[in-house]
Amino acid sequence: MPRKQHLTTSQRKELRRKENQYIEELNTRTQEFQNPKATYFQDLPLSNAVLRGLKDASYVKLTDIQRDSIPVSSKGNDVLAAAKTGSGKTLAFLVPVLEKLYRERWTEYDGVGALIISPTRELAMQIYEVLVKIGTHCSFSAGLVIGGKDVKFESERISKINILIGTPGRILQHMDQAVGLNTDNLQILVLDEADRCLDMGFQKTLDAIVGNLPASRQTLLFSATQSQSLNDLARLSLTDYKTVGKPANVGGSEPETPDTLQQYYIVVELADKLDTLFSFIKTHLKCKMIVFFSSSKQVHFAYETFRKLQPGISLMHLHGRQKQRARTETLDKFSRAQQVCLIATDVVSRGIDFPAVDWVIQVDCPENVDTYIHRAGRSARYGKQGKSLVMLTPQENEAFLQRLKARKIEPSMLNIKQSKKKSIKPQLQSLLFQDPELKYLGQKAFISYIRSIYIQKDQEVFKFDQLPTEEFAYSLGLPGAPRIKLKGMGAIERSKDLKNAPRQLLKLNKANDNGELEDKPKEGKTKFDKMFERKNQTVLSDHYLNITKSQGQADEDDGDFLSLKRGDHQLREEDLPPLVAPQSKRSIRKALSKKASLASKGNATKMVFDDEGQARPVYELEDEQQFRERGDAKSQKKEFLTKEAEVMAQKDIEDKQLAKEKKQEKKRKQLEALRREMEEDDSYYSEDEEPAVVLGTGNFSDDLDEQSGNEDEGAEGESQEQDEQESESEEPPRKKHTADKEQKHKKDDNVMEVEEPETLEDLESLTTRLLNQ
C-alpha cells in the first residue's frame, strides 16, 4: 500500500484557503439562484460531496417538492412544505441539512448541528438509511435514537453525533439524561410529518424539546398534509417562513393524492367486513397489499385468525405494541417480498416507502381525510401505479365521501360479486370455541373498535349510537357482545398523553421529594379479578364472577349459593351514626383518609392497662430528671449488666437441670421398653445354656449390640414368670426371644426371684447384686 503523504503547513493552509473560497462561491450561487425549471440535482447550487453522494445512490432527477424547497432551504429560510405522498420529501430536507453543515464547516467536535424528529420509529429508520446513502462523501457523523433500543449504548456515543435522528420521546430522554448531548449550537431543526408531531399526542414532549433549542436555528416542516395553525407555528418559533407546495386545509384545484393512484370505495355492513376482506385476499393472491385497521388489537386478531384459515398468501402483521426487533424484521421482509399481505395499524401509514405496493385496503374508516391520504399514499409512489380501497358502512358512507370531495378526492364505487364472496363466520366461531386465547383476542378486538368509534370527534361520520354491536360480535365469532366500560373524554386525553410520554419521565413524576419512587397501591380490581375476567371461558371464572358481583346486579332467581350483599366495603356517610356523621367534605375526607387523620393526631400508639385500670403506652420514655435520680449512666449500666448476668446464670442452671431430667427420663423409657421385651408368660431361657441377665447401658443401640454379642457367645436367656399384678394389667402380650418359638422350654430351678425394679436406683442395685454372685 502506498504511504500516506503528510501535508506541510503551507499545503494545509492552501487547501483551507481554496475550500473557503469554494464555500463563498457556493453561497453566492445559492443566493443568486433563479431557475424554477431545474430538472436534475446538478442544476442546483450544491456542493460536490453532496452531488457525488446523490449520484452514487441513483438520485438524479428532481421532483416538484425538491425543486421548490431545496433552493429556499439552502438560503437559510424557515420552510413550511407540503406535497403529495411519495413525492420525495425526505431528500427535500436531507440535502439542505448536509449543505448547511458543510457550509458551516461543521466537525465532530462541534456537537449536534441538525436535529430531525419523526413521529414513528419506522420513519426515523428510513430517514437514517437514506441519509447514510447520500452522505457517504461527507465527513459528518449521524445517529439514530428510537424507542426499543439500548439507551446506554446510545448515550455513550451521542456526544460525537452531528446529525441526530429520532422520535420525540427518546430525544427528550437523552436531553434529560445524556451528559454529552449539547444542542446549544444547533443549526437546523427538521420535523417530518409535522402535523402528526404537532398534535396532542406529542405536544408536551415537543414543547420540552424546543425549549432546549436555540431560537436562532433554522426550522423545516414537511408533511403530506400540513397544518397552518398560528399556535402550532408559534410554538416552534416559526414566524418568518416560506410556504412551499400546497398545504392542507387550503383550497386547491388538484387533489392531494398522486395522479397515478386509482381510488375505490365499497359500502359494506360492519358485520360483513371480515368476510369481504378475506374474499378480497383470496381473489388477489398475486398482489402485494397493505391492510389497515384502527387498533393493534384488531390487527392481532385478524392476523391470527386469517393465519389459521390460510387464504393462500403470506401474511405479516405490524403494530406499535410489538418489540422493535420484530417490527424491523417485518419491515425488511415486506419490502423485499412481492406477493404478501401486511396487516397493520397507522404506525406505517406515514412516510414509509414500501416498493411496488399494489393495493392499500382501509378496513376501518379513517378518522379524517388526512389519515386517508397518508394510508392511500403507501401505494403509487414516485409516479408508479397503485390502487386504494376503503370500506365504508352505510352510516359512514355519505358524510365521509363529502369530506373527501371537499379535498378534491372522488373515489369510484366498486360492487361486490356475491359469487366471489365467502363467509368465514362459521369458521371463526369454531376457532374461538376451540381456542380460548383466540376468543380473548376477539373480545379485545371488539372492545378496541367500539372505543375507537366512541372517541371520534366527527360525530356526523362516526355514529356511535347506531353501531350493530351484536351483529359485529357475531361476525368475529363471539357468542355475544362483551360488556364495555367507556371512559370520559378527559380520561381518554390523559391516557393518550401517558401513552406517548417517555417511561423515564413518568418514573420521575412519580418520585417524591427525596427522589425515591413511591409505590402507591392501586385502587380497583385486583390481579385475580383481571385474570378471571380475561380468562372467562372456563367454569371457574363464571363461578368467580357470580361470587364477586354485587347483589344489586345479580338476578333474584339465579339461585347462586353465595352472593355479596355489598361489594365496595367503603365507609360512607350514611353508614356513620347520626351523632358522629361529618358535616363537611373536609371532615369526610379526614375521616376516610388514614393519612389525613395521622396529620392531626400523630401516629397511632398501642396501649396497655395497668393494675389501676389506667391506659398507658407499651413503651414509655422517662424524663432526664428521673434518669439522674437513679445514678449516673455508668453505674446504671454496670448494675443492669450485673443483674442480667445473674438472671442468665440462674436460667443456665435451670436449663441444665431440665436437660439432665430429660436425659434420665429418656434412659428410663429405653430400659423399660427393653425389660418389657424380655418378659414372657413362661420362662425366658435358651435351650442348653444357663440363664443370664441382659443389662442396659443407657443407649438403646448399645443394648442391642450387647444383646446380640451375648447371643453369639452362647449365653442363655432367662425371664421371670409374671405375677398376678402383671397378669391383671392391660399390657399387650410380650415378645418371645427364643431360638425356636414353637419348642416348649422346660423350667429351670436355678432362678433368682427379685422384686420388679420400679426406679433407676432399683435397676442399679439389681445389677450390683447380680455381678457380685
UniProtKB/TrEMBL annotation:
Q: Quote the Gene3D superfamilies the UniProt record gives.
A: P-loop containing nucleotide triphosphate hydrolases (3.40.50.300)
Q: Which UniProt keywords apply?
A: ATP-binding, Helicase, Hydrolase, Nucleotide-binding, Nucleus, Ribosome biogenesis, RNA-binding, rRNA processing
Q: Which InterPro entries does this entry report, sorted A to Z?
A: DEAD/DEAH_box_helicase_dom, Helicase_ATP-bd, Helicase_C-like, P-loop_NTPase, RNA-helicase_DEAD-box_CS, RNA_helicase_DEAD_Q_motif, SPB4-like_CTE
Which GO cellular component term is one of those annotated?
A: nucleolus
Instruction: Give residue spans, biased composition: Acidic residues.
Output: 679-691, 702-730, 751-764
Q: Which Gene Ontology biological process is one annotated for this entry?
A: rRNA processing
Question: Per the record, what about its domains?
Answer: The Q motif is unique to and characteristic of the DEAD box family of RNA helicases and controls ATP binding and hydrolysis.
Protein name per its UniProtKB record? ATP-dependent RNA helicase
Q: What is the lineage of its organism?
A: Eukaryota, Fungi, Dikarya, Ascomycota, Saccharomycotina
Name of encoding gene = DBP4
